[in-house]
Amino acid sequence: MPTIAHSAALDAARREFAGRDYLAACTVGLPSRATRRAVIADLDAAGAGRPDLAAYCAAVERSRGLFASLVAVGADRVAIGSQTSVAAGMVASALPHGAEVLVPDGEFSSMVLPFVHSGRDLVVRTAPLHDLAAHVRPSTALVAFSVVQSATGEVADAAAIVAAAAAHDALTLCDATQAVGWLPVEASAFDAVVCHAYKWLCAPRGVSFLTVSDRLAARMTPVNAGWYAGEDPWASCYGGEVDLAPDARRFDVSPAWQAFVGAAPALALFAALDPGELHAHATGLAAAFRAGLGIAEPERASAIVAWDDPEGCDLGRLMSAGITASGRSGRARVAFHVFNDEDDVDLALAALGH
């Protein structure tokens, strides 16, 4: 496949990653050199008896601000945590008992189970992703969906879903875990966005974010409030007489400090790049792979390619060739990210006999 021209910034970002033959960003991202240095330096300092709590909190707040810039909202709209399901559970707390939640068929369980097991007798209804908007009805209180489906890589028609939800005064919850880092996402379009950063944002596992609209924040209960949800966390360590933060920080979950140490440089790398160029790079490689494999292009371009592989034969061929890929729901699955290039496409196609 011909080499695609890139900006100097994207080329520099690609050099931040040492891994090769890796097509599994949709499973877990690779650490950048800067992330590796930051985590090792922190471990060395802690191992020498010098853990730096102020630096930990600075890394958390830097990460919050960087994620906010990536999804085009203010940092006051962003809560931090460690798992998307915890954030989805807080969204469930905003719904009245017996309310209806609409989710796509085959949606990732972290976006479904918090509503199924909310203890609020919520009615969870499913519909095909490709026409999810058509299934929003007056009784729908919330539409919860991943903007990019984990198992298939299908990109949702988010604009149509948001418009249909608005027509019926329904809230929207968007899981952007499989999107932010290659697909531009504007969090202000949704009432809530959840995103774990260990995939396409290449952060250590244990760093997630939640953005909230004003109308959702007014209804949502900080059911996981702890010391870090206080207006001044270091003055909120004891007792119940604590002033919670007035903005989205009231929904914070106590941070996994070391994970945020590694997340801050990873998020800085992506925040410094042109999101349009990232999208074109990832989807261009995916399109070349689809063409070589004879797979039709999806309606909306995706960096993830998944195809039927019920016996795991194609996945086995890729792995035998030294290519790290993944399989989900009877499909083989590859993903193309900033650290991939045309050679990865050619190697994967050769491994599959194309």
Automatic annotation (TrEMBL):
Q: Which Pfam families match?
A: Aminotran_5
Which GO molecular function, any one, fits this protein according to its record?
transaminase activity
Q: Which UniProt keywords apply?
A: Aminotransferase, Transferase
| Residues of the signal peptide | none
Concerning Gene3D superfamilies, the annotation shows: Aspartate Aminotransferase, domain 1, Type I PLP-dependent aspartate aminotransferase-like (Major domain)
Q: Which residues form the Aminotransferase class V domain?
A: 60-293
For this protein, the record's PANTHER family field holds: CYSTEINE DESULFURASE, PYRIDOXAL PHOSPHATE (PLP)-DEPENDENT ASPARTATE AMINOTRANSFERASE SUPERFAMILY
Q: Quote the protein name from its UniProt record.
A: Aminotransferase class V-fold PLP-dependent enzyme
> Which species does the entry assign this protein to?
Microbacterium yannicii
Lineage, highest ranks first: Bacteria, Bacillati, Actinomycetota, Actinomycetes, Micrococcales
